[in-house]
Request: fold
Amino acid sequence: MMRTILALAALLSSVSALGADSAVPLLSVTPAAGGQVIGVPGASLPWLLLFPFLPALLLAFTAFTRIAVVLFLLRQGLGSPTAPPNLVLTGLALLLTIFVMSPALKTIDAEAYQPFLAGTLSFDEAAGKAASPLKSFMLRQTRAEDLGLFTGDDKTIDPKQPDSVPLAALAPAFLTSELKTAFQIGFMVVLPFLVIDLVVAAVLTALGMIMLPPQLVSLPLKLLLFVTVDGWHLLVGSLIGSF
Reply:
């Protein structure tokens, strides 16, 4: 699986001029006034078909899932469907993901990607070196029961040895654990807002103001509470600390 990811990531830089001895290209563009023929070899078809799924695959192996789910649950708890907008929350989740994953990314870049670009490592060797720090990060966040769900009774797998855990089993186990952790954090984030909603609804009902939507009253109160306790600082700090 790591070979597939690296191959997809390298596909953008693999499209180059094809010589006369190259295989028949799947797609070629010939300039009208002459010049180089730019094409994509037919052997690249499987990678091209998988390429649209590359962002989802890459993000599934990182801290993005947990961070994004918690941020969107926070917006749901606030009762504000459009603020902050999706683009802002996604951008914040990506920045926090890069920060959390920076040690592993630096190791992958120094030990796998740069040597591969320099030609000192083959593609298979680079894929193996890139998988090791990524597996180490994923194993630290994966619950043993979730990993056991995908590895079964395989005695050759030792969770303390990242190289012995196949990425095909570790990836879904990691994503399952991340979703569970995200919902646990999200529950603690949403609970105070739920209490405010219940109190506001009860007060409005007692006052006979049943025609007034409780959300109109509870939203300013929830925003005031969130700002008063410096909610963004607490939430971002808690998310980073959870890794």
Q: What stands out?
A: Residues 38 and 185 are 50 Å apart (CA to CA).
